[in-house]
Amino acid sequence: MSALLPTIASPQDLQGLSLEQLEALAAEMRQALCKVATTRTAHFASNLGVVELCLALHRVFDFSRDRLIWDTGHQIYPHKLITGRHAAFDSIRTRGGLMGFPNPAESPYDLFMTGHAGCSVSAALGLASGDSLRGENDRRSVAVIGDGALPSGIVFEALNNAGFLKKRLIIILNDNRMSICPRVGALAEYLDVIRTNPWYRGLRDKAGDLMKGVPMVGESMERMFVNVKDSLKATLHGGMLFEALGVRYFGPVEGHALPNLIRYLELVRDEEGPILLHVLTEKGHGFKPAEADPVFFHTPAPFECDDDDCIIAVRKSSVRGYTDAASAAISDCMRRDERVTVMTAAMCQGNKLEKVREEFPERFFDVGICESHAVAFAAGQAKAGCRPIVDIYSTFLQRSYDQIFQEVCLQNLPVVFMLDRAGLTGPDGPTHHGLFDLGYLRLFPNMTVLSPADEFDLTAMLDWAMAQAGPVAIRYPKAVLETAVQDRFGTDRRPIERGCCEPLCDGHDGLIVGCGSLVSSCLQAADLLREEGLEVGVINARFIKPLDHRELLERIEAAPWTVSVEEHAGHGGFGSALLEAVNDGGLTSGPITRLGIPDRFIEHGDRGELLADLGLDAAGIAATCRRLAGRETAAACSTPLHD
């Protein structure tokens, strides 16, 4: 039973606690994290690893006035527990509850809604600069960034600028030797040298012990030691990376020893200019199973454990998702063609590419959280004669917009983009919903864009894409592949042909054109309407670009009305492409209603609940069709995206 945690209404309540009480509070916070993880999928190991860091930061700084940005943001849970949200913590990642990432709407202690890696240093530097311009020089700006995010290109852009501007900025490098999977790259190796150098760490520890034994040792002695230590290390390593960029380096510091951590934060708090404090933490710290397997416990399925932190059961699901099907299809392509490579941006686990990595280690490339580099890197491989597959979440691919344009489409290179998590991603919320990819991908000349309705489509589309001479993008959701859905499509399926749709059923009363995984809901809606005497046709669009300008447009022109359905933002999406084609073709069609995501950011929640709220489930699609057919009832009324 928690004793201290319920008493923490704000970070100010930490000031009166002893170190022993802070350590007891850390244990209670870990219990709260474990409680949530046993009930739902949540970010877990990363949060366990920053409990002491979170407490130390709020103990040393006053973030009601100072600035704090958590990079990526999935390790925000301890911060939420002590910033007035403990009572609502059980609601995290549920519809209407706390968000699993920072959210300024929840608390003034959350400055940015951060869900992508690497941007914290830039934003924190901007805050420091803005405060300076406004004469508020007493404010401190702190960015907490993980070692997995550190190699992101924008981080080095920010470090370069910080070293030049010399504003007061504190960068906390939370080094747990992990991204989601173990970190990769030369920078990771550089950090390992600092972390594991026995001479340096021995000097630091012995000198620290010596200072503890000297009466009346003040901060000046410790500062002197830090300066000597940094000089020695610069000599040993031939110049330090961060120091060369004009950012003073302190550390590394043990991140789970509260007294030492607090002392170092107090040491750097009032330093002038940009500072980087290197903090060593353990992902999953304090929960033995997570310490042993931080990859699995990054976002584990709900689990049960006993009083000794031994896992009793993990509620694993046996169902397959689109991501499973994509991974299997990629493996098949790599077995058939030795030119095929695959690359991901630190999301090997999320993209379920572990087996690909094991089977084809020389043709698998995890580039770290560097999406722009991944795309340009793939373009280089394609130019050299390889057939690269770039497997990245839809929301993260946005970070490589310019490289898709310049290095891939402009050169018309055969790079295949697999856009995982395209659509609503459920409890991850607005930072991760992949709702904007069609709005930019379909604009690029030479780009072909497809969206599969089921596993048959996904596998066949990838096979087709690998035979094309230019770039192809395939978008698919974070959703389950249900057996019933496959049965609904039948066995007599059309092959994938460039720019060709797939009519699934006919109907003279109206037409539904589905894009991607929502085609199944379109078929369900047609079944509901058929029971009411309405015969509505359904088409699986398959291609967003190029559209089927023959059969699809002919059927739209012949239909009394048409409804397009997509799991994408309405502006610039599939429905917009459909209207453009109808207009450009000079067709005299009946009314066309677009169903999609409205022009607002969508909250977190169960994907099925969100689709229902937006009128994108079978019932919502059927309600829109009834209205267009003049059969609308008050109970069945639905509001379309556009008419």
Topology record:
Elements: H1 19-37, H2 45-48, H3 51-60, E1 67-70, H4 77-81, H5 120-133, E2 141-146, H6 153-165, E3 169-175, H7 186-196, H8 198-212, H9 219-237, H10 241-244, E4 248-254, H11 258-269, E5 274-280, H12 288-292, E6 303-305, E7 311-314, H13 322-336, E8 340-344, H14 354-359, E9 364-366, H15 371-383, E10 387-393, H16 394-397, H17 401-409, E11 416-420, H18 437-441, E12 448-450, H19 455-465, E13 472-475, H20 483-489, E14 502-508, E15 510-514, H21 519-531, E16 536-540, E17 543-545, H22 551-558, E18 562-569, H23 574-584, E19 592-597, H24 607-613, H25 618-628
Parallel strand pairs: 1-2, 2-3, 3-5, 4-5, 8-9, 8-10, 10-11, 11-13, 12-13, 15-16, 15-18, 18-19
Antiparallel strand pairs: 6-7, 12-17, 14-16
Brief summary:
This protein is an alpha/beta fold and 643 residues long. The model is unreliable at 198-208, 234-239 and 634-639 (pLDDT under 50).
What does this structure look like?
It is a single chain. By secondary structure, the protein is an alpha/beta fold. It has three domains: 286 residues, Rossmann fold (3-Layer(aba) Sandwich), CATH 3.40.50; 154 residues, Thiamin diphosphate (ThDP)-binding fold, Pyr/PP domains (Rossmann fold), CATH 3.40.50; 128 residues, 3-Layer(aba) Sandwich (Rossmann fold), CATH 3.40.50.920. It is built from 25 helices and 19 strands. Strands 9-8-10-11-13-12-17 form a seven-stranded mixed sheet, sandwiched between helices. Strand 15, helix 21 and strand 16 form a beta-alpha-beta unit. Helix 15 packs parallel to helix 17 and helix 21 crosses helix 25. The longest helix has 19 residues. It is globular. The chain starts with 18 loop residues before the first helix and ends in a 15-residue tail after the last helix. About 4% of the residues have low confidence.
